[in-house]
Amino acid sequence: MATTMCNELFPLFEDLLAESATGVVIAVLNCCHRYAVAKEISKLLLDCFHIPEDKKVFTFRCILSLKTYEVVQEQIEYSKKPTQSGKPRRDRLEGCLTGSLLLQALFKLGEIELLEDGLCSLSEDHIVYLCDNKHTSHAMQTFFNSANIPDDVKHRFIQTAIPVIDKFVTSPTGSHVFEALFSSASNRLKKNLCQVLQLKESVIKFDKYGCHVWKNCYQKYNEQPVEKKKNKRKKLTDDRKSNKVSRRSKPELIKDKT
């Protein structure tokens, strides 16, 4: 029944979004997640947001802002034109609650193929906005917490975000995103993240929200309990002693009395 319903509603996605019936679209995507129905979602999204096959990199941005490819492209081209005073404009990333909810549903499904390149090629300003905005930050938390998204995709985004984590780690929403980001990072990336935290220790450690990040991420990763360290040291010592004993003791040969 769920499969039949989804297949009936898939072709109507664009009309549903145009009529502001985004709740229905989100409900269908959540239904897909619950019953493992994900047929033709990629193609439907491209059609829904008028995205050409060779411009898939814009899929993430279109869904986030809930705007078609043509509108997003116009905004990007406009941002390239200087102001009347000659100053360069900024290419501003836009996000909305509905776009965030759509992305959350897709991330839960593990539908990342269309979104990966657009997400992982964002500028540093866009990454800060994405992790710090009250709506889009929930999408990023879902991205890091989703078991259906491969670790290598998460690590690819984290690598691009490392230079700017200090710009959102002390905000109410950004601190939560960082904790989710940190928990899904590899050991190598965690070391790099800790280095950035350490450089900004005086700001992060004593900040209202940054202090939680410092405690839950930096300290937990870098500081082991004293007892644990002692036990680890003792085990290494015991292992070395046992290795020495085993090397010294040789089995005696039993002579044949006959």
* Strand composition percent: under 5%
Could you state the oligomeric state of the chains shown? Answer: single chain
Give the end-to-end Cα distance, rounded to a whole number of Å: 85 Å
Low-confidence stretches: none
Largest sheet: none
Helix content: 55-70%
Q: Write down the overall mean pLDDT.
A: 83
Order of helices and strands: HHHHHHHHHHHHHHHH
**Shape field:** globular
* Number of β-strand runs: 0
Q: Nearest-angstrom radius of gyration?
A: 26 Å
Instruction: Tally the helices.
Output: 16
What class do helices, strands and sheet pairing give?
A: mainly alpha
Write up this protein.
This protein is an all-alpha fold and 258 residues long. The chain is built from 16 helices and no strands. Helix 7 (97-109) packs parallel to helix 10 and helix 10 runs parallel beside helix 12 (172-183). The longest helix is centred in the last third of the chain and has 23 residues, at 226-248. The chain is globular, with a radius of gyration of 26 Å.
Can you describe this structure in just a few lines?
This protein has 258 residues and is mostly helical. The chain has 16 helices and no strands. Helix content is 65%, strand content 0%.
Which features does this protein show?
globular, mainly alpha, 16 helices
Secondary structure elements and their pairing?
Elements: H1 2-9, H2 13-18, H3 22-35, H4 41-48, H5 59-65, H6 69-79, H7 97-109, H8 116-120, H9 124-132, H10 136-145, H11 151-161, H12 172-183, H13 187-199, H14 201-204, H15 210-222, H16 226-248
Helix pairs in contact: 1-3, 3-7, 5-7, 7-10, 9-10, 10-12, 12-15, 13-15
